[in-house]
Amino acid sequence: MSTIKLSSLQIGDRAVIRGIQADETIRQRMASMGLRAGREACIIRRGRLGGPLHIRIGSISLVVRRKDADQVDVSLLAHREDVNQVDVSLTA
Amino acid sequence: MKRIALIGMPNTGKSTLFNRLTGASARTGNWPGVTVDLLAAKIVLGPDMVEFVDLPGIYDLHGFSEDEQVVRRFLENNPVDLVCLILNATQLDHQLGLAVQFSQLGCHCVLLLNMMDEAEQLGVRIDTQQLSNALKFPVSLVSAKRGQGYPQARELLTKALHDAVPCELSKIQSKLAQDDVVADTAEKLMARSVVMPIVLERKTTERIDRVLLHPLFGLPLFFLFMYLVFQAIYMLGAPLQDGVAWLLDGFRQLALEPLQPILPAVVFGLLVNGVYDGIATVASFVPVIILFFFMMALVEDSGYLSRAAYLTDALMARLGLDGRGFVMLLMGFGCNVPALMGTRVMRSRSMRLLNMLIIPFSLCSARLQVFLFMTTALFSPQKAPIVLFSLYLVSFAAAFGSALLLRGRLRSNEPFVLELPPYRLPTLFQVMLRGWHEVRHFLRRASSFIITGVVLVWILTHYPEANPPGGPQSLAGMLGQWLAPVLDPIGIGPQMAVVLVFGFVAKEIVLGSLVAMTGLQGAALVGYLGTNMDWVQAYSFMLFVLLYTPCLSTVATMRSESKSWGYTAFSVTWALGLAWIASYAFYQTARYLGY
């Protein structure tokens, strides 16, 4: 499966983290916050004007600056459309 | 005496547990090997007197962040009998790795899983026996906030401590397994002993977020909240400060003034106008610090501070700061001192130092008093509000401009990844205790510095000749004349130069010093200013007052928070330089244009 950047995901997308393209210190820091290979991330919202991403990984919610999200490789699991339908059924 | 180190991740309720165990007796102190202050308290646990140390929240024992290094250095340099590890029971999928690391270190440990009440509600089920067997240390569930499981936890600590021998740890990093191995072990352990619902539903938090983080209304709501917080500090703080001033003044009149005929003039002046007024200056900050941290605890513990960071990060990232810095900057408009202390939420030192450099440019309520008086004295009622508004703009421009200029020197290479905790209601006890700790910290760190400064200014303005205080024959007056070559080009005369010397102590005494020096009050002083200054001089003076050192207490706080005289000196010089350049540019341009 081809990898894309975490920062390119749209609201509602779900993806698996494949790796972090950064030096050891930063990779370590991100991993300790839950951004580590194998975890599943879901995009909840994207900040306006290049603001950060709001994502959910397992039990926690994270804010990730777009510059840092650029360094995270992910592979897409499901697009927003699939999730939107779930959303509609929830609000209805 | 035995020692327990309290370790856990941020947002696990670690300080709530610490406060519950130690009450209000905790104080900050220095420790071998680490450069930051840590909170510690002595408590009785079973037969032993135990020292309980609260270490900074960390995500990983292996990491390189400043907090992680502090924890490692503390453990390597201070033998502990027991590590009390606290994890969030609702986030074990992320947190169990830390417990695995401690299990590998082989030191005595007790694991408390906090927020058992929330975990129950969310349907998280934990097999503590299984966990305990695998990790080889006792595990217990607690709710630090509600007190559930608390007696058991205390008992567990007492028992574990009884069997424990001090363990000296060295080279922690080399004893830990590879991060992947730790993560693997934690995952397997997780699968065996914890049942978590697939989707952890936090409906309330998600609903509130939908409003507060709304793409359009999020920011306006943020500014509305900040305005309300600011108003609350100001409206509640002003009468409280007046009350403290009234008490101190009453004491002065009843107990100290009668000493005037008995004591030699010099001794009386030094003790009462110097030392006592210094103490009064320190005391006047106490109510506003308590209020500020009361508000701060509400904003932070509720979970909103991280949300504010999300909302304002697009702008702040460009300035080399993060969104939490913006909150502190806005809080600085109430009072700079607690805003500086509040930057402790920032984990990166360089970012924190950058943030602390720009906070003093926030037009605080003490400066506002001076500006309100001067704008009414020198401008028409139509123009005065515009003048005041322009000063607020200058205040923001100076803060953002400084950040832009200095962000390269204080660059932070930490990734910006912030946890958004679920919304929680802070408990009153927690909020109160926070205010109390901060006030004590301020009093301990800043009072001697401030009192010395006030005494120094008293000597400057009363020696060798004190008629009137700060007059031409005093040291301050001479200083004013001596500074004439520097201050003439910005339109500030020798008399106003002395006012600037007073203003260095506190902006609250600027007007008082004018009264003392001219012997005029109220309308007479307004008239005096109107005839002795034109509006260009007045605006130049106000620009200078806005930008140069806010007050001695700010300098003292700057020093105690940064622990660096060099940084403090740089901050003061930067502000002075900026003040002079801004006033010079304004004054000369206005004069050149014929005003």
Polypeptide structure, described:
The complex is a heterodimer of chains A (92) and B (595). Chain A is of the alpha+beta class. Chain A is built from 3 helices and 6 strands, in the order E-E-H-E-E-E-H-E-H. Chain A has helices at 24-32, 66-69, 80-91, and strands at 4-5, 14-20, 40-46, 53-57, 60-64, 72-78. The longest helix of chain A has 12 residues, at 80-91. The radius of gyration of chain A is 13 Å and the shape is globular. Chain A starts with a strand and ends with a helix. In chain A, 43% of the residues are buried. Residues 83-92 of chain A have low confidence and may be disordered. In chain B, 64% of the residues lie in helices and 8% in strands. Chain B has helices at residues 14-22, 66-77, 92-105, 116-122, 128-135, 150-163, 172-175, 179-193, 203-212, 218-256, 265-301, 304-318, 323-331, 336-342, 349-358, 365-378, 384-406, 428-462, 475-482, 484-487, 494-505, 508-518, 522-532, 535-547, 552-562, 565-592, and strands at residues 2-8, 27-29, 38-45, 48-54, 82-88, 109-114, 125-126, 139-141, 194-195, 417-419. Chain B has a 7-stranded mixed beta sheet, sandwiched between helices. Chain B starts with a strand and ends with a helix. The model of chain B has no long low-confidence stretch (mean pLDDT 84). Classes of the chains: A alpha+beta (92), B alpha/beta (595). Chains A and B meet through helix 1 and strand 5 of A and helix 3, helix 12 and strand 10 of B.
Question: How much of the residues of chain B is beta strand, in percent?
Answer: 5-15%
Could you tell me the CATH topology label of chain A: SH3 type barrels
Residue-averaged pLDDT of chain B, rounded? 84
Question: Which structural category do the helix and sheet elements of chain B fall into?
Answer: alpha/beta
